[in-house]
Amino acid sequence: MKRNKVTMAIHATFAALLAGTGLACTAPADTNGPSLERFYGQQLQWKSCDDPRLDPVGAQCADVTVPLNYSQPQGETITVAISRMAATDPAKRRGVILSNSGGPGGPGLDFMVDVGAAMTPDVRARYDLIGMDPRGVGRSSPVDCHWPNGFGLQSAGVDAASFAESVASQRDLSARCAATEGERLRYFTTRNTARDMDVIRAALGDTKASYFGTSYGTYLGSVFTQMFPDRSDRIVLDSSVDPDRYGAIGMMQDMGPVNEAALDLWADFAATHDGEYHFGTSRAQVRRKVMDLIEGAAVDPIRLGDFAIDDHSLPMMLFVGLDDPRNYEKLATQVRQIADAAEGKPVEISPELNDTFSFMLNAQPRDNSAQMAIMCGDVETPRDPAEYLRNIEAARATQPVFGAFANNITPCAFWTPPAEPPTQVRNSVPTLIVQSTGDTRTTHQGAVAMRRALSASRMVTLQDVPIHWIFGNYPNKCTYDVVNTYFRDGSLPAADVTCRAD
User: Fold this and answer.
1) Is 15 a residue whose pLDDT tops 90?
2) Peptide bond into 421 cis (omega under 30)
3) Other C-beta atoms within 10 Å of 365: how many?
4) What letters, b where the CB count within 10 A reaches 16 and e where it falls short, cover 323-351?
5) In what order do the strands lie in the sheet with 232-238?
6) How far is Cα 221 from Cα 457, in angstroms, rounded to an integer?
7) Nearest to 64 by CA among 120, 2, 139
8) Neighbours of 144 (CB within 10 A)
9) What per-residue confidence (pLDDT) applies to 11?
10) What are the DSSP E strand ranges found in 160-306?
11) How confident is the model at residue 7 (pLDDT cuts 50, 70, 90)?
12) What are the tens digits of pLDDT across the range 337-366?
């Protein structure tokens, strides 16, 4: 169903009015009234997780029953899989830390294994760490649209003809989801996941929940604080989105400039190792080599292993490799393999590069359609392909590699409109925001915007490091100390903090 600009403006005004009264953030189904008692009061059955990372640390798992549609709690139900790593000192236990690993659509059942490893012993003593596969993901009533490829995002390519291919493929992905998942697709949303989290909190027997989320998980955490402020305890948001730009437009567009900046850093690395990679001895020469590969792949896809790499997929391979500066050497080796294949040389594709392209280009037993289900179900996007093409062309001069990805059309352009308006995040729940300045997924300015939206928050900035997800992923004593102090004592810094790489 297509909506015109007038209808969209009315919709936005209506949402703003509701936000002003608080009704947009606390619908009747957000409280545990009589209709939800059976969910909030359920007894969980704990069992072995049957997971190679969770079982060795003594975690247990359970399935939590929740309504598919919270406005019809007597209707269909689904289950949400959670894991629990118990507090190491029951006498000091003060509660639970819920979590989300990002995505959206990322499984998180074992996520707290990594986060817990970054915690000091006195923090681990106090909390049960709760991992979760959010609704529609992993073991939690998964969305599976049976896509012909595993990944729902792609670059629009080098010209209008390549963009037309994107429009056709993204329309097809949306149609497959509508055909396979039907009406239930509308209920795999962030707001419903936040409601699930409150049910999980109650089922665990706690009056409040602390939280650690990274990437998209920062948006989910902020939505939880907006919908359930009185049930929010110590909240940490690591690598944060701008809550006002979340979705398949603003959040994606913000990735263009930061990935171009990260590509510059990688090009500098490759140029200083020209004797090994042979891309050129300057940033400009390395960048020119990358563009030559992309432009050449548009005309004649590069055969590597079982794959035909074109101008839709090659920029995405670079995007995958730029999220962590510790991977620059690996990325350079992979680009060298692609360049050799483009020159007709015999190349044995590395296992990791094979896995990247396999997920990106081939059908999977479990594809990433949950990501699109959540993003498209949360925020409506423009329907007219011409609008996307205009944005792509406008970005090419300053974003030659990633502008066509960051501004490309997605399946959301063909999706059923969301069941609810998006959440406007504006509250004073005490929150700690952790962010690097060079993050290629969730930008530093996005975290600054989250800092403004959460008026009682404090922010820790890891300066001059292009890393996505810090605590539990990128050791940094300054950052880790602030996070552990907050979880241990509930003490936010008196002012925002700037940290440097160790």
Assistant:
1) no
2) no
3) 6
4) bbbeebeebbebbbbbbebbeeeebebee
5) 47-48, 60-67, 77-85, 127-132, 95-100, 209-214, 232-238, 431-436, 458-462, 497-499
6) 13
7) 139
8) 18
9) 31
10) 209-214, 232-238, 302-304
11) very low
12) 999 999 999 999 999 999 999 999 999 998
Q: What is the pLDDT of residue 5?
A: 31
C-alpha distances in angstroms, 65 versus 62, 206, 207, 220?
Answer: 10, 17, 19, 20
Rounded Cα–Cα distance for residues 322 and 60 (Å): 35
Identify whether the C-beta of residue 171 lies closer than 8 Å to the C-beta of residue 414: yes
What average pLDDT does this structure show over 134-159?
Answer: 96
pLDDT in the model for residue 366: 87
H or E element at residue 98:
strand 95-100
The predicted pLDDT at position 21 comes to: 26
Distance CA 146, CA 176 (A): 7
pLDDT at 27: 34
Other Cβ atoms closer than 10 A to 37: 12
Mean pLDDT, rounded, for 221-232: 98
Close Cβ partners of 221 (under 8 Å, ≥ 6 residues apart): 100, 211, 213, 235, 237, 431
Please state, in angstroms and as integers, the Cα–Cα distance from residue 47 to each residue in 44, 55, 90, 328, 431, following that order: 10, 10, 20, 41, 33
Question: Which residue type does 69 have?
Answer: N
| Residue tagged 């429009």 (tokens) | 167
Q: Which residues contact 405 (CB under 8 A, 6 or more apart)?
A: 153, 154, 155, 156, 252, 255, 256, 315, 316, 319
Residue 253 binned pLDDT confidence (cut-offs 50, 70, 90): very high
Helix (H) or strand (E) holding 67: strand 60-67
Q: Which residues pair with 48 in a beta bridge?
A: 60
254 burial level (CB within 10 Å; 0-12, 13-18, 19+): buried
Token pair recorded at residue 486: 């907050």
pLDDT per position as a tens digit, 159-210: 999 999 999 999 999 999 999 999 999 999 999 999 999 999 999 999 999 9
What values do phi and psi take at 79, rounded to 5? -120, 145
As a 3-state breakdown, the chain gives helix, strand, coil percent values, each rounded to 5, of 45, 15, 40
Alpha-helical runs (H) found in 108-183: 111-117, 121-124, 160-181
Per-residue pLDDT of 475-495, as tens digits, reads 999 999 999 999 999 999 999
Residue 28 pLDDT > 70? no
Tokens 């241990």 identify what position?
488
In residues, how long is the chain?
502
Local confidence band at 314 (pLDDT 50, 70, 90 cut-offs): very high
Q: Say if residues 436 and 410 touch (Cβ distance below 8 Å).
A: no
